[in-house]
């Protein structure tokens, strides 16, 4: 019985290591996406500056109808760019929240792995009790993560 429990704990530790690796991969992907969004934000700001420069150059000319049409076009483009910037900022905020959530989950998994390693040295009754407590802790953590994701989704919808 103790050998079976010992092997199951070893398997659980290996599964936790695999989960940590998957979370690290997801964290790296989110960081890459965050960098890409920042690059896109910089490109949009550059385009905005170029449009403002073009607007300034057009103001120096005297062709009134062409100027009005180009002004209207530039204003529409500026509005579109501002909306895109706002959308990007919201997406960056969401990504930062997800990164914090993943970091928290990684820390908790490391703590759980450390506790499981300590459990290998304890007697059987205490081991079962601590395993039940760890399972309860994981369920509570999962509940909190789901609530946080639900709040984020609700905030994005409003």
3D architecture notes:
Keywords: Membrane, Transmembrane, Transmembrane helix. With 158 residues, this protein is an all-alpha fold. It has one domain. The radius of gyration is 27 Å and the shape is rod-shaped. The mean pLDDT is 76.
Brief descriptors of the model:
158 residues; mainly alpha; 3 helices; transmembrane helix; membrane; transmembrane
Total strands: 0
Q: What is the beta-strand fraction?
A: under 5%
Compute the gyration radius: what is it?
27 Å
Overall structural class, as computed from helix and strand content, comes to mainly alpha
Q: How does the major sheet shape up?
A: none
Fraction of helical residues: over 70%
| Number of helical stretches of at least 4 residues | 3
Alpha-carbon distance between the termini?
54 Å
Overall mean confidence score, pLDDT: 76
**Low-confidence blocks of residues:** none
Number of domain units:
1
Q: What is the overall shape?
A: rod-shaped
Please write the string of helix (H) and strand (E) elements: HHH
Brief characterization of the structure:
This protein is an all-alpha fold.
């Amino acid at each position: 019985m103790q050998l079976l429990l010992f092997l199951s704990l070893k398997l659980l530790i290996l599964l936790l290591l695999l989960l940590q690796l998957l979370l690290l991969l997801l964290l790296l992907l989110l960081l890459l996406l965050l960098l890409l969004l920042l690059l896109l934000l910089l490109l949009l700001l550059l385009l905005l500056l170029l449009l403002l420069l073009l607007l300034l150059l057009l103001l120096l000319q005297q062709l009134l109808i062409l100027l009005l049409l180009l002004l209207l076009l530039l204003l529409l483009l500026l509005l579109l760019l501002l909306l895109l910037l706002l959308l990007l900022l919201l997406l960056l905020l969401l990504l930062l929240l997800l990164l914090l959530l993943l970091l928290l989950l990684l820390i908790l998994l490391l703590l759980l792995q450390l506790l499981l390693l300590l459990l290998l040295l304890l007697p059987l009754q205490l081991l079962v009790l601590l395993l039940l407590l760890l399972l309860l802790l994981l369920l509570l953590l999962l509940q909190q993560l789901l609530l946080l994701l639900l709040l984020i989704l609700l905030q994005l919808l409003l």
